[in-house]
Amino acid sequence: MASPSWHSEVALGLTQVYTKLTQAPYLSPDSIQHPPSEGWGDEELDVDGLQTTLGRSDTAVDLLRRLPYLKPVEAGPQTGQWCIFPKTKAMRYLRDHSSLRQKDLEGLYELASLPPDMVSLTHPAGEYTHYGPQWWLVDCKTGRITKYAGPPRGEALAEEFEAEWKKAPTYAPADFFQEVTTMLGKDFYPVPGLVDGMEADFCTPDRRESTTIYEIYMLAGWQHGHGPGPYFDREKCGKDIEAFLRDQKERESRKRKAEIARDERRPRPTQTDDPTTYPDGYDRDVIVTGLTRYYETLAQMAFFPTSLIQYPPGGRWDDDAFLPADKIKLLGFNESVVDLLRHLPYLDVDESHEDNCWSVNGRSEPQRYLEDNLILNDELSVGKATPESLYANGLFPFPEKMPGGLVPIAGREDGEWWIIDTNAGTVIVYDAGNKQVADAPDDKPWLWARTLSAHSSTRSSIACIPWTWYPYRGLTLRLPSATPRFGAWYGRRGRKMTRMIQILKLRYVMLCPR
Predict the structure, then answer these.
(1) For the region Disordered, what residue ranges are annotated (predicted)?
(2) Angstrom distance (rounded) from CA 414 to CA 480
């Protein structure tokens, strides 16, 4: 019996995807195993696994006999299948190194829960992101391919998984693989696992470290959005990527060692729990302690990694690590502000996160007054240090010149600003354009907002801990700063999950002074 015509379309499309990956310094051409003209036989195809483990029909098995497969990864400590899309690995249905025989295969429950006439060409690999993992589901009755992005759900949320993939878009095989093949080398660039301890992955040109990978491809002759140009040097591209990855691994190793050394040396900040003992006026240690506890609470809640918190060595940033004196002078800070900034903790640059940094309250991002902040160091000049210019570039909250004792420690042009007043020992929480004090002068916007003591500010901030967007078993959570107590859950079981948030938040709010 002749196979349906769309079988050859799926086989051709999958071959095109794999071939595109061989053109990059990622797969080698001999990594692709093409089926014989009559298709894979029972001695080659893992028919037992398909029918016993997954419960696939003869119709589904017939399609899998016609497809190409990838040989397993054999690079250093890596095993298993290749990533062929972000957080997405190819399924291998041949007996030799069958994916179905892989221990702890991610998504196995979902693969077995699909209708008998449906098979997946991929399975999830790693945490869920905006880009993947993706399930490429082929309906062997209709020949349509469903592209569903989402993590495995497990048995408890099997209904949610089924409801979601059934709502995902479907494609004719030719259209589906044309779209996927175009995205490779345009939206996603393969990063081979050339360095021990670093698995093969994909990067996007809009991230800082990924931009370097993108530039390596371009300099080697790759044509963005098309593929290898006539002068593409695949070997050079691979060597340059390997050199970059080794350098990146070495930098991360030095960073970790420095973090461990700093953590061992730093004195633990003292804390005052009794409100009756709160000092009047400005106290540098109160502000340092409050901000430190706030960052540590965010890390304890897994909002960002603990390793991102950078503590001042010995309790104070030295001249080599702090902003140069001439840049501080351009910013107009007085001695009290400079002394405070030398004792504050900062958040390190996170090149894997959106905009390379984490928000600390809604859309507010932390300011970083250290030597490695290029915007405030190398790029800051007399012309760019005017209040108007600093405001226009989102570095200062006001276009007017602030009093010397004021310093923003977090904020963004479309978010909330935290401004320390070292003259009064208070924190100004400024929402751009929101004049809370009606009789405040129009030309002094720092007087528009009501001030808080450092202790009150810390308690309020911890009570409004921001939550990141986090997909969890079909639910998406975020607690924006605009919602002072609780965020919204989207998906099923919303009320039950909201109660869970309340309990979690209560637990962490209890960490702050009363």
Answers:
(1) 248-282
(2) 14
